[in-house]
Amino acid sequence: MSEKPKILAISSAGGHWVQLQRLRAAWDDCDAVYVTTMDGYREDLVADAERRGQSTPRFYRVVDANRWQKFRLLRQLAGILMILIRERPDVIVSTGAAAGFFAFKIGKLMGARTIWVDSIANAGALSLSGQKAGGCADLWLTQWEHLAGGENGKKGPEFKGSVV
Amino acid sequence: MIFVTVGHELRFDRLIKGLDNWALESGYKDIFAQVAELGEEGYKPRNFAWQSFLDPDSFKSRFEEADLIVAHAGMGTIITALTMKKPLLIMPRKGAFKETRNDHQIATAEQFARRSGIYVANDETELGTVLDGLLANPPSKIDEAASEFAEPQLIQALRSFIYDGRAPKNM
Q1: Sign of the four-CA dihedral B5, A60, A55, A117
Q2: Which residue has the higher pLDDT, A150 or A71?
Q3: Does the beta carbon of A119 lie under 8 angstroms from any beta carbon of chain B?
């Protein structure tokens, strides 16, 4: 890891992205790369970085996909693979969903460390992507205290606070 | 003015139809709704103006102008309402009606009902009653906007992990 850690922050658009954005102060002064499934966020990111005196982050868009859209999932996976090969981040952080899971799986093979912050929308149980990604996350967090800790001796997420 | 939003993914007929009926019965029609893609089958409201999607700027100005936000129990909307100090009425989508992939919005609504400024209608039958109540007794102004960032201890936990125990600059 160089002087300035390189962070790749990835999530699908909408609520996951809103939550990911609220974590961004955690990687202030790092080299930041963002990946999401909608184009519209690029300008906001650049404007925010300027306002807060941060270096301009890089932004990539990958195709949107949910767990039932197998072909789109493959295209998303391919897109994420290309970005990871190009960027080689030190740390990958995600709030969900499929895109984050893919980035973790590939990123781990490249030696990246990973942070999964399960969406606050999952107040009743961990998300499906959260349960899967949690297994390969180096830091696995839930935003609900009652969901912290593993059941039946299994590994579980920790609670360190929430995005709101 | 009431601004209605169902998020950018799926339409939410139960909410929009419930609001349409309420608008007709109550005579309150100062409503604008973002309803997502309706296609052929989606319910098209007759008693207020609507649009499928809004660009980010129009979305923001509609949100700002509104006295009350009515929405699905999506986190994007909830967080926006909390940061913009807007009273918010949420109705959760249900997995059984294929309105979303599961019942996570029910749990979200349950948890966020505890926050001041957030009101919940569990389904369309409760919607009118809650709206009538909010019109009769407008919610008091929310003093404090939620911060633009996550809770400090969460930011700190991530930051320590990112720097892996080494001391970053400006920590």
Answers
A1: positive
A2: A71
A3: yes
